Amino acid sequence: MTSLERSTPAFAYLGNGPDALGQFGRFGGAYMPETLMPALRELLQVFQAACLDEAFWARYRQILTDYVGRPSPLFLAENLTTDLGGARIFLKREDLNHTGAHKINNCVGQILLAQRMGKRRVIAETGAGQHGVAAATVCALFRMDCVIYMGAEDMARQATNVQRMQLLGAEVRAVHAGTATLKDAMNEALRDWIARVEDTYYLLGTGAGPHPYPQIVRDFQRIIGQETRHQIIDKVGRLPDAMVACIGGGSNAIGFFHPFLADPGVQLFGVEAGGLGLASGRHAACVAAGRPGVLHGSLSYFLQDDDGQIRNAYSISAGLDYPGVGPEHARLHETGRVSYTSVTDDEALSAFHWLCRNEGILPALESAHAIAFARQLAPTMTTDETVVVCLSGRGDKDVSTVMGYSEAQR
Amino acid sequence: MNRIDATLARLRKDTRSGLVCYFTAGDPDFVTSLELLNGLSAAGADIIELGMPFSDPVADGPTIQDAHIRARAAGQTVVRTLELVHALRATDANTALVLMGYLNPVMQYGRDRFMRDAAAAGVDGLIVVDLPVEHAAPYQAAARGSGIHLIRMTAPTSDSDRLARVLRDASGFVYHVTVTGTTGRAVWAPDDIATAVARLRTHTSVPIAAGFGIRTPEQVRQLTGIADLIVVGSRLVEVLAARGVAAALTEVGALAAAIEAGK
Fold first, then answer.
1. Is B162 an interface residue toward A (CB < 8 Å)?
2. Is residue A12 part of a domain?
């Protein structure tokens, strides 16, 4: 396979960032209005103190074990493997977490930070609603007030998740601006935070945003990769040959990849949403089709026009429908450590059905993008090689989207 | 001489506060926007603050967000904004003009090229809402090289350590965000503003502008003599949107009269 070309590279970046300004190379930073800069600094200080506090991590792990249900299994997908006849395919089952996705890992860590900071009000943005549900869940657990900003378009696509958040006691505020999707929800969450920064904790859910969020989200999502490392060594006696994860802002991918960055034999693939195809202009493939720029506090790859106006992203999957990627991904692309690619809506849908029928697992449409790429990759690999796919979430929320699409195709 | 410096020197001589009027470039369209800008000095604006439309203006409330949407729908871009300033200079060579916007359009235009072209068009200052002091150095150098003031911003949440850092290299004036919130939020606490301005003066001798949430002639009158410059934005954008150029200029006149009355 192509990994031979990259078997012994000297990569410039192995995950030891960010620097003091929150930068991963030239990417990242904290490009925010002055009003929020002191709060970001306070958050960094609280996070750094927490990182050195063994009791903090013990509490985090205890909640993940007793409440979230970790470790999540690493499942050998024998039917998929047999179907393709190439590398053995393992699935990291983040879909089996409480609330149904990897998002809860980050929320558990950040709600503990909010508690350390004495905040009682939590706000969050959400796209597919998975982060919103996870945020509402930890707020219920810690008895905090919770306001979720969600694009009106996404509320229509993910109605079940809206109801789940409401049942958990969160107030869901519809955002009608722009394309009424994740980017616009994040704008509104930031405006709320600017207005109520004194009493409010912003529980950011993706690997993007201003420093220190990309680092915080990564460090609370690293559990995915850490467990995977132990589990794959247990099962096959060595590290995997390839790992695949979907990328919207990139939180599941960064947590999954990070513990493997210094292992050059492990090829890493980030799969962006190709929507209707890159040539159509209707996609969310920011690394492939974007340029470095600044949005939502960090310098990274964004879809934009020549005037620097952010372009609308599109994907069948609400969770990938974001016009940027987290800054550490931008750095990992620049250094070549992670290969970023994309699959289309159709390929993701086909993979969705393939996984349902062959393994009895209904994946989130986001995760179906990773499955779709693994489906292309595994046959190019040998039967003694392994590929691990991060199955970042379950697909119950997507049933109506998938059925509607099938109707439309008919 | 930079027109901001000239304006501030004149205001100091007259011992009065100056009026800064914010409008969004190209709102609702280029021609109307130019007509408005041409009338601002005569109506009583000391400094024109011209917003550069952006797709994701996170520091702005609904009023200015809508102005950005209208302007972009009418084809406003960075290039067109510089053309607008250039066109204004045909009739108004002396009024100081500050561009206010978000970093990405400036970055994509090209930092050095932007400063050069902005200076050539007749821009005197630049406020970049999402460019904190941590990342400002290369932009500050480029602005200075073109004779443009990169305006520093402070907020009610800035503590003393931070103020010292933010204000160390301040030039032109300092823009103090008077409310913890987005533009146009109607919270009125003039005593807090006075306290904040007094605190800023312990860190800098650069003149201080107060902005965000200042709407009425009465509010402007109350800040006269406290802040060196008083910024009114969302209120003017609202009047322009609802009642047009003549009404907006009348509103500017009322604000300018309030400064005279409070002198």
1. yes
2. no
